[in-house]
Design goal:
Layout lengths: L4 E5 L3 H12 L3 E5 L4 H11 L3 E3 L2 H6 L3 E4 L6 H8 L6 E4 L12 H6 L5 H8 L4 E4 L6 H4 L1
């Protein structure tokens, strides 16, 4: 198996959990985008020697695969800030549901009737966008 370089943008329950699994499987993982830098340090330490932490831009530029695991409300700002995703494989687990699961924010907030992955593809047309894990609870990953 060839080890991949995976940038995690959003190091909450999903990003942290998937990043730890991938690092323990031998992939190079860079954790980023947390309100708490200490959390990023701890995630990288717990994930093992193939894990590190950095800024979202560093995670994107140093990786061939990107996991987007941020809230829908900040998605477009994050994509604007991380730089080019051209040629990257982008996995998104971003959900269009409200935090209480009552409705789809993407349709209500933007008037678009598309998936989150389709919206990301519009914003990063030269990336290869894949939607996964967005209906998986973080507890299952943990």
């Amino acid at each position: 198996m060839k080890a991949m370089r995976i940038g995690i943008v959003g190091s909450g329950n999903m990003g942290g959990g998937l990043g730890r699994l991938w690092a323990k499987a031998g992939h190079q993982v860079i954790f980023s985008y947390s309100r708490d830098d200490d959390k990023l340090h701890q995630l990288a330490r717990l994930a093992g020697e193939t894990a590190d932490f950095g800024t979202p831009t560093e995670a994107v530029t140093q990786s061939e695969v990107i996991l987007l695991a941020v809230g829908f409300s900040v998605l477009e700002d994050v994509l604007r800030d991380v730089g080019s995703l051209d040629g990257k494989i982008v996995i998104t687990c971003v959900s269009g549901l409200q935090p209480d699961f009552t409705g789809q924010t993407i349709g209500l907030a933007t008037e678009l009737k598309i998936s989150v992955a389709e919206r990301i593809q519009q914003l990063a047309p030269h990336a290869k966008v894949v939607e996964a894990f967005n209906i998986t609870f973080a507890e299952v990953i943990a």
